[in-house]
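Exercise 7.
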Amino acid sequence: MARATRPRVPSSRQRPSGRPRKIVEPAIAPSRVVSANVTRRLGGGGRARSLGKPNTVGCAARVRDSPAVSAPPAASQTPSGPVPARSNVTTMGWAAFWSGMAQEMIYPLLPIFLIVALSSSKTALGTVEGLLGVGVTIARLVSGRAMDRGRSPLLLTRISYGLSLAARPLIALAPTVGVVALLRVADGLGKGGKDAPKAVLVAADADGARMGRAFGIQTLLDTLGSVAGPLVAGLILLVAGHGESGLRICFALAAIPAIGAVRQLARAHDTLVPARHEHGPRASLGRPFRVLLVAVLLFGLANSSDTLLLLRARSAGLSAADLAFLFAAFNLVYALMAVPIGALSDRVGRRPLLFVAWTVYVGVYIGFAFASQAWTLVALFLAYGIFYAANDGVVKAWITSLVPPDRRGQAFALNAAASGLLLLPASVIAGGLWDRSGPRAAFLFGAATAALALAVVALAPALRGRRAGL
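Solution. The predicted structure, written as tokens, is:
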């Protein structure tokens, strides 16, 4: 008995004659496609290379065409879309350049604006800058926690940068010290929120053996922007005048480099951060990291706002434009030293470089306590740039070697929070000592407290040997 037959539909292996033949490889489960996408890296960097778009019906097959048909190459994929060719090391660096330029068109002029234009005291100045530190601390903790829960580092970075870039130019419209304080808190929320996710984005694209250099590049470009900002501000003041109106014009024009930062952020690409389950096992941060965090906390109590150093330089007779140019020179020293010091830390270790940085800080603060001539204060301010170049990037690179990758978000956030947690009391104490006893008492307090933190780094056994990533 004959069986009924159904029309046969050509499969992917059986094509009608005249059509190019396609060879279909065995289907791959979606989970394996995702795993392959995540684990295939470009030269050790953080950009994932896609194997193709997974289909939506439960399996994904890769199709190779015969020479008769050419298929367009699949775009690289990340959680936020196609991956640009540029590395986050450079993209985030240039974003920091433009953001730093916008920030430093305002920061060195804030002491004059608050003390002279808005008639505030040194204690009020310290309070305003301390409140910024509170905003920084809150945002750092929140962003680090969000990344440990698998949130997008790129999204957190963009939101944080946007808040800061919007708040800074608005200081031009501030009528009172209270409004300035609110805007500085908003700026602090943005500054703090970007630190940990930005560090994760950079670390994902950096070769482990050159981590110090990667963060040194961030410091270099950030600081080059911080050189350009005061130079532009000084030129604006020479044209617009050193009074309140000239200061407000300069603050408003800080919106222009902010646009450049936004353009760079649009080019950055995301990286996958594994979510840490609340009830699952989690790696320990380790004793060396905790001891380092204690030292950073002590140092935070010594590290009052740099606006007090600028105010001390102004007391020697420097004008507003002079302060802007001095701050540009300080940042130039910082920029020139950042990458060499970061690379040196890759060779000799993080601890010796951090020891040098904090020793310079103690020496500069002692000098500010006793110096009376303008040239001496200028020289000390330039030496202060060495501290900045050797501090931030070296600490971040050290943390990278101390903690496991899935805890880096929280570790970066805790470090950044520790450095900013005590900015408010440190600045209020320093400003109050200045108002009551003069600048010498304020700077000697900072030098003595920094010396205690230096002793922890020098003497703590947990910060020596292989366990400390040395």
